[in-house]
Amino acid sequence: MALDASIVEVPKPPAGRLPFLRLLARLVSNPVASWGEDFYDEPIVVYRDFGLETVFVTDPELTQQILLGDSDAFTKSPLYDNVLGRAGGKGLLIAEGEDWRWQRRIAAPLFRAEAILSYAPAFAASCEPVLASWRKAQPGSLQIIGKDMTNAAMQALQDTILGADLGEQERKMVSEAGTAFLSSTWKIAYASLKLPSWTPHPGSNTMRRAGDNLREVAGRVLANRRQGRGDGADLLARLVAARDQGSGAKMSDSLIIDNVVTFLMVGQETTAQALTWALYVLALFPEWQDKVRDEVRRVMGAGPLGASQLEQLGLLEAVFMEAMRLYPPAPSLMRITRRPIKLGGVELASGATVVIPIYVVHRHRLLWSDPLRFDSSRFAPEARVSRHRCAYMPFSTGPRSCIGGAFSMLETKAMLATFLAKARFELPEGEVPVPLARITLRPKQGLKLKVTMLH
Questions:
Q1: Could you report how far apart the first and last alpha carbons of the chain are, in Å?
Q2: Which helix (H) or strand (E) holds 288?
Q3: Are 251 and 103 in contact (CB under 8 A)?
Q4: Angle formed at CA 284 by CA 153 and CA 415, multiple of 5 degrees
Q5: Which terminus of the chain is less hemmed in, N or C, by CB atoms within 10 Å?
Q6: Cis before 11? omega within 30
Q7: Burial 423-447 (b: 16+ CB within 10 A, else e)
Q8: pTM score above 0.85
Q9: CA 396 to CA 417: how far, in whole Å?
Q10: Please, are residues 53 and 47 in contact by the beta-carbon 8 Å criterion?
Q11: Which pLDDT score, from 0 to 100, does residue 258 have?
């Protein structure tokens, strides 16, 4: 298989423009199957039906206008309030205006790359329970990769963010809550249709219970932290101790719980899905897997992975970034216009829904040469410098970009390196995962790979 081999595009984009109601139905079922061929060729796609304006934006300049230039003209509410509000309260992901700026000032220093490099050994160690389970299996046996990556991501979250061991029941509650919130598109569809947030939908009661469970777990973890348990090196301890440099104010316990819930839901899920898709791509293209493994073993030597080694894994980083181009862990962003605004020559009224389908942007034919080809050279330093910042956005961009982007990048690199150093991954015959877009991008029927431990 050639190093520049291409992926199979599934599901295939609809050939023509879908009518709005069919588009909406497919958005609920799987947005990847709703974005037609014109989405991959045009800078902006506009729907005006039933008194609603819905705009899909793929042009980097227009995206920059939304996220940076005229960001005050767009809001996340009520979209993100409806999806995460019950569990996430008014944490960083949902807060707006001065409330958001104040939280960001307090939390941002905790997530700088230089502040989290010390977690590299913990990231690598979090893979050990999964590796131990693979060692007990027969070489080449099928493993459910999504489940394994979720377990590894949960371990990393416990060790570096919470500084606390969750019990089996608590881990189950967190996992089920993440699935309930991040796998449903009904709330987004209802918000797009301007329906009240209380409108019932399939899974609404499950989401309500899941939100309560998440807040209960977060509250218990914070209470333990307040009692002085843990070594104080985890992100939660640092968040509790953080102060606003200007006023000296600290976050209330309620607000800390809001943000811990966000870390529990989004942090674990995005890491697990990014690792799952990266391992799929490396199993699909074994020559790339061998090249990356050679680099990892050369850099790591016989010792454990540390911060200095992590920074030397240039090929692994480029390969991982290319995997996230094809399979971005967060497949879309949404905003609502606060006021009338012109976007790419299109006049939008206040209350219009604006969607940035990152999955489409990363495969757009005007932005990427042969976009279905897997090619890590797209992320060589010179290529990255010349690319528009809004053509590649696995963690969004601008002031509302993911605060944990640097954290997630270091985490997933360390974990991916650890898995590749210890195991080989092969694709079973006929295994073609279908991307399913929810809040995160996941394989629709999961992913199974043949795993063989290496000596």
A1: 25
A2: helix 286-300
A3: yes
A4: 25
A5: C
A6: yes
A7: bbbbbeeebebebbbbbbbbbeeeb
A8: yes
A9: 24
A10: yes
A11: 85
Tell me if 184 sits within 8 A of 290, measured CB to CB. no
Cβ distance 44 to 58 under 8 Å? yes
Specify the pLDDT at position 247: 82
Angle between helical axes of 97-107 and 253-262 (0-180°, round to 10): 80
Q: Which residues of the chain have pLDDT under 70?
A: 1-4, 78-89, 178-193, 195-204, 228-232, 398-401
355: region left, alpha or beta (phi > 0 left; psi from -120 to 50 alpha): beta
Closest CA to 260 of 80, 103, 97, 440: 103
Distance of CA 320 to the CA centre of its chain: 13
Per-residue DSSP letter, 367: T
Nearest to 31, CA basis, from 192, 241, 249, 245 = 192
Distance of alpha carbon 107 from alpha carbon 161, whole angstroms: 13
CB 305 within 8 A of CB 121: yes
Q: Could you give the 3-state DSSP secondary structure of residue 33?
A: helix
- Rounded Cα distance, 127 and 91, in Å: 29
| Residue tagged 């905790």 (tokens) | 110
